[in-house]
């Protein structure tokens, strides 16, 4: 009998069996931004890779996009909302400070049996939520979970800060996770955090530490703040590391990756990760040119589009990775099967 601890293999794994996406109809191009502030299409494209983003009009809140994406994922999976055990919504721009946006989703979808809560890990939110939901499924306590990443950060940016407002867009992506055989599905997840970076990218006002006051509003100091270069360096260093850790934990290496679905923050970050891990850009999914950084929504939106474009096939190793405020970062390794039968 071996005394060496063996990696834990649960009797079942979480499989992604349905995907959905939703974005608001209004498109804001780089040229539109150049008419409102001192910037150019060329600057934004060359520094970030973004060409346009979607922005919510005042009548659209995060739960509206989340509901649309959730409905699409439920239909794609061929299940009913009543069969869901849990709705887990990754967001940092929920409709209200409380209660959770997941509860609004539960009501909108008619998921009467489902528990519901939000998860706050900013742009790493979907990867954190995938890890959390997968653990519930592996434990046997839940069978079907709706995981949503949804954000409308264009409502939180400071439109007079050209260094940040050009980056963000609104959207939602959703995935149905279902219990399936243990030899496939979400086979590894690694979540990391470094609270020393709380102020690297954050929304300082509006919470209990710094409530919004008339003075803050008059000074225009109520939006998202970011130290761009610091965040860039953090991502370039930590993202390759967490991908390697997640792959190694299941005995894989970068050459096994069929598709890398990264948080869509900056094309140059994606190119750096691609170079460092020697994963060619053809295997890195990119849709940030059309949507910008949609925070927790970016990974599930990218997964949904990648699947629809035929970029993910049964048998593929798909790696999802997120990074953002907190600081937080996380990666998941998925042996894609596509349909649960266990
Ligand atoms: N248009 C034109 N010029 C701009 C500009 C804009 N939208 N925003 C900033 N600039 C200017 C700056 O004022 C500065 O000018 P100066 O040299 O005269 O002072 C110059 O461009 C360089 O600014 P800097 O902020 O140093 O640029 P950068 O090369 O670091 O690029 C980011 C800025 C935001 C694109 C880059 O730092 C980045 O992508 N960081 C990671 C951010 C991220 O991914 N965040 C999300 C994490 S979830």
The class by helix and strand makeup works out as alpha/beta
Please report the number of helical segments. 11
Q: From the structure provided, what is the oligomeric state, counting identical versus distinct chains?
A: single chain
Residue share in helix: 25-40%
Order of H and E elements = EEHHEHEHEHEHEEEHEHEHHHEE
Explain how this protein is built.
By secondary structure, the chain is an alpha/beta fold. It has 11 helices and 13 strands. The protein is globular, with a radius of gyration of 19 Å. Bound molecules: coenzyme A. Coenzyme A (COA) binds next to helix 2, helix 6 and helix 8.
SSE blueprint and pairings:
Blueprint: E1 13-22, E2 27-29, H1 30-36, H2 41-48, E3 52-54, H3 62-77, E4 86-90, H4 101-109, E5 115-119, H5 125-139, E6 144-152, H6 162-165, E7 170-180, E8 185-193, E9 201-202, H7 214-219, E10 225-226, H8 228-248, E11 259-262, H9 267-277, H10 288-291, H11 298-308, E12 317-324, E13 328-335
Parallel strand pairs: 4-5, 4-6, 11-12
Antiparallel strand pairs: 1-7, 2-3, 6-7, 8-13, 9-10, 12-13
Helix pairs in contact: 1-2, 3-4, 8-9
The structure holds coenzyme A (COA).
């Amino acid at each position: 009998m071996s005394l060496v601890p063996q990696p834990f293999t649960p009797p079942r794994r979480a499989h992604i069996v349905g995907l959905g996406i939703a974005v608001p109809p209004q498109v804001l191009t780089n040229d539109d931004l150049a008419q409102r502030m001192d910037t150019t299409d060329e600057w934004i494209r060359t520094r970030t890779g973004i060409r346009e983003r979607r922005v919510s009009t005042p009548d659209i809140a995060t739960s509206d996009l989340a509901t649309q994406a959730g409905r699409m994922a439920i239909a794609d999976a061929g299940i009913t909302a009543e069969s869901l055990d849990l709705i887990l919504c990754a967001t940092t721009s929920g409709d209200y400070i409380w209660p959770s946006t997941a509860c609004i989703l539960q009501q909108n979808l008619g998921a009467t049996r489902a528990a519901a809560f939000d998860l706050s890990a900013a742009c790493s939110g979907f990867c954190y939520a995938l890890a959390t939901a997968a653990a519930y499924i592996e434990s046997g306590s839940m069978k079907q979970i709706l995981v949503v990443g949804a954000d409308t950060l264009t409502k939180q940016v400071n439109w007079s800060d050209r260094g940040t407002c050009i980056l963000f867009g609104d959207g939602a992506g959703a995935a149905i996770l279902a219990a399936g055989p243990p030899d496939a599905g979400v086979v590894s997840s690694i979540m990391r955090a470094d609270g020393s970076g709380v102020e690297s990218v954050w929304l300082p006002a509006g919470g209990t530490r710094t409530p919004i006051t008339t003075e803050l509003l008059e000074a225009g100091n109520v939006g998202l703040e970011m130290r761009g270069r610091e965040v860039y360096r953090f991502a370039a260093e930590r993202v390759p590391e967490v991908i390697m850790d997640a792959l190694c934990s299941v005995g894989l290496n970068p050459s096994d990756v069929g598709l890398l679905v990264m948080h869509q923050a900056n094309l140059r970050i994606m190119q750096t990760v691609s170079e460092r891990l020697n994963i060619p850009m053809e295997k890195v999914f990119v849709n940030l040119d059309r949507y910008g950084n949609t925070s927790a929504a970016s990974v599930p939106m990218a997964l949904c589009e990648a699947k629809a474009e035929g970029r993910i096939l049964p048998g593929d190793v798909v790696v999802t990775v997120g990074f953002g405020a907190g600081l937080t970062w996380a990666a998941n390794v998925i042996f894609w099967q596509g349909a649960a039968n266990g």
